[in-house]
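Hey, quick one: can you model this chain's 3D structure?
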Amino acid sequence: MTIRLPDFKGGLRAYEPRPEPLAVTSGTAFTSRTVFSAAHVVADPYADVSPDSPAAVDWDATLAFRRHLWSHGLGVAEAMDTAQRGMGLDWAGAAELIRRSAAEAKAVGGLIACGVGTDQIAAGTLEEVRAAYEEQLALVEESGAQAILMASRALAAAAKSPEDYLDVYGHLLRQSTEPVILHWLGPMFDPALEGYWGSSDLDAATDTFLEVIAAHPDKVDGIKVSLLDAQREIDLRRRLPKGVRCYTGDDFNYPELIAGDEKGFSHALLGIFDPLGPLAAEAVRVLDTGNVTGFRELLDPTVELSRHLFQTPTRFYKTGVVFLAWLAGHQSHFTMVGGLQSARSLPHFARAYELADQLGLFPDPKLAEERMKNLLSLYGVTQ
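Sure thing. Here's the predicted structure for all 383 residues.
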C-alpha cells in the first residue's frame, strides 16, 4: 500500500509507509543524563475562538501527553516556547498549565521544570519587568516545580546595557528558593530577543551570561542554550563553574552534544524530544550503559527530521511538533492555539510524515497513514 505525497516541486510522489513501529519500552529515570522534553499544548477544537482570543486548551489531552513523556522516564519542561508561550498561549493560560502539570507531576512522581517569564506585560520599565518575573517565579515555586528563567522580550526592550541584565537576573537569583535553570533563547526562535544579554556580539553576550552565573553559582542548577551553534555551546559548557550543568537546547546537534567529549557533556532540554520521546528515551538508556556508539546509532538518524521541523522560520517548529502528535494518536485533531496549524506548507507536512514514519515514531502506522491521507484530501490530493 502506497500513499501519494506532494514534493517541493509541485508534483506528487509515491511513498510506501513502514508497516511496524520502532519497538521501545517504558522505563524509569536515566542515570547518566538529566533529560527534559519541552511539551506542546493540545487545543480544544470545539472552542469558538479566533487567533486573537485567549487559548482554549484541552486539559485532559494536554496532561495525558505529559504522562506519556513521564512514562518513558523523560522530565517535562513546562510552559516553554514549545507550549506556544507568546505565540498563542498567554500568561493566564500558562499559569493554569503550570498549576495543572505540577500537580500531575506530583501525583505520578514525574520530573518537571516550568518556564518563568514576563509575558503578562508587553513592555515596561526594568522595575516592571522584574516584578513580572517575580510574580511568575512565585507561582512556579508555590507549585513545587523547578523554575526555568526564560529570556524576556520585555527585558530585551527595556535593558540599555549588560548591567541591566546583571541587575535583574541577580535580583531574581538572590530571591529564588531553589537553584534555577537559566534559558538563553536565540533570535532564530524569537526575533524579539535579538541582542539579549546586552549585545548582538555573541562573545560579549556570553561573557555577561557567565558573569550572572559566576555571581550566583549556588542558585543556578544549569543553563539551557538554544543558539543552534554546537561549538559555541561546547565552549560555553567548558567555562561553567563546577556543579552548573549545561542543558542542550540545540535541536540541530543534540546527539553529539549529549554524547559529549573527553571534557564533558550536555544534559538535554529539547523541543524535538516531544515527538521523539520514546526513541530518545531508548537512546539515553543505551548511553546509561556506557554505549556511546549505540546511543548515536539510535539518535543520529533523527536529526534530519529535527532539522526539517526547525527549519526557518524556526519559531514555527511547534506546528510540526503538534502535527506529529496528531499522527501518532496523542490527540484527536490537528488544531493549535492561535490557529498556528496553518504556519507550515503541505509539502513540509508530507516530508515530516515521511521522515517520522521511516524512524518508526508512529505507534499505529495505519492510523498515521489514514490521518495523513485525510489531510491531503483537504488540500485536494486524491489517492
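One thing worth noting: The first helix runs from residue 59 to 71.
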